[in-house]
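Hi support team,

I submitted a single chain yesterday and got back a structure, but I'm not sure I'm reading the token output correctly. Could someone confirm the output below corresponds to the sequence I sent? I've pasted both exactly as they appear in my results page.

Thanks,
R.
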Amino acid sequence: MKKRNRLPLLLMGLVCCLVMGCGVDSATDAGTKQPSALKAPEDYVRGALGARDRAADVVGTGAINKAIEAYKMEYGTNPASLEELRKKGLLSTIPPAPAGKTYQYNPRNGTVALVDK
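Hi R., thanks for writing in. Yes, this is the structure output for that exact sequence:
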């Protein structure tokens, strides 16, 4: 009996599996609400970038809040603006807000928040 090369058959089977998988919803496996294993790397990167952005938000507002507290302790009142924190040397620079956001400062109660532009 003549031996046949099985490589073409194996490759054709692999191509069929890949083609059949293309009909699957990009976010979940067909018919389920379970995340697709094929999308796991993309989901991981998206989550990591989101975590980085949230961390930058916390670091920026944290530094500003710390400077506001120091200002209150030294001057007995809230600063009139965030720029005043820089002028008094409590912040070397106002931390940059994440893309698409800006800091909103309320001098009455000394709170700062990130808001959409």
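A quick pointer for reading it: Residues 23-29 have pLDDT under 50 and may be disordered. Let us know if anything else looks off.

Best,
Support desk
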